[in-house]
Write a structure and sequence with these properties.
Blueprint: H1 2-12, H2 14-24, H3 32-45, H4 50-74, H5 77-87, H6 95-108, H7 110-116, H8 122-125, H9 127-132, H10 137-161, H11 166-203
Length: 204
């Protein structure tokens, strides 16, 4: 997958970035960590402009997240679950993951939308319950673009900073992934602690 993405970007430049980022915001099979960090690398190797890369990736993100949002808003909730249960393997999705994301969104609301924009896969997955629950589109767009602009700029800048070594770039991506997994685990433990603490107080 990584090799196909980097080859596509090397050949088609800005057009490839737009297409890949749009797809990444509709389907979680195209990782933006690879797309944008390699784009940052290409800003040194091939002279791609950082401002243009940032603008293109942000516009593509905006279009992609709106497509998924309105699809999930217009389609019946159970139909979405059935589709994911039947075809989700092609997109690395499971019905239970979507249901959990829905429960998480109902619990944390707007905070979930913003924070998930910084977490691989969840940055796309959270849009599904947002659409299902018909969150105000303006609120959704503002929160999503806030997280997306920071995410896109950080990854492009990371790629440029690591342009001296492609291996170092890939290592940086893996390190980031591990950090995010640790953060997710800590967040889950914190939520479980709060639930246990509240239940214990109620018993008292």
């Amino acid at each position: 997958m990584e090799q196909l993405i980097t080859d596509f970007i090397s050949k088609w430049g800005y057009t490839a970035i737009f297409i890949l980022i749009l797809l990444e915001n509709v389907l979680p099979v195209v990782p933006s960590e690879i797309i944008l960090t390699f784009a940052g690398l290409m800003s040194v190797k091939s002279g791609l402009s950082i401002p243009i890369l940032f603008l293109i990736s942000t516009i593509a993100s905006f279009i992609g997240l709106l497509i998924l949002y309105y699809l999930c808003r217009l389609i019946n909730e159970e139909s979405i679950y059935r589709f994911v249960d039947k075809h989700g393997k092609w997109f690395k999705l499971k019905g239970k993951d979507v249901r959990r994301a829905n429960d998480w969104f109902k619990r944390y609301g707007a905070w979930a939308v913003l924070l998930c924009r910084f977490i691989p896969v969840l940055r796309v997955l959270i849009t599904i319950p947002v659409g299902i629950n018909k969150m105000n589109v303006v609120t959704f767009v503002v929160l999503s673009l806030l997280g997306t602009t920071i995410w896109n700029f950080a990854l492009i800048l990371l790629g440029r900073m690591l342009s001296g070594s492609f291996d170092a770039l890939m290592a940086g991506l893996h390190t980031y992934s591990y950090i995010m997994y640790v953060i997710i685990i800590l967040a889950v433990l914190y939520v479980l602690y709060r639930i246990f603490f509240k239940n214990r107080n109620r018993v008292k």
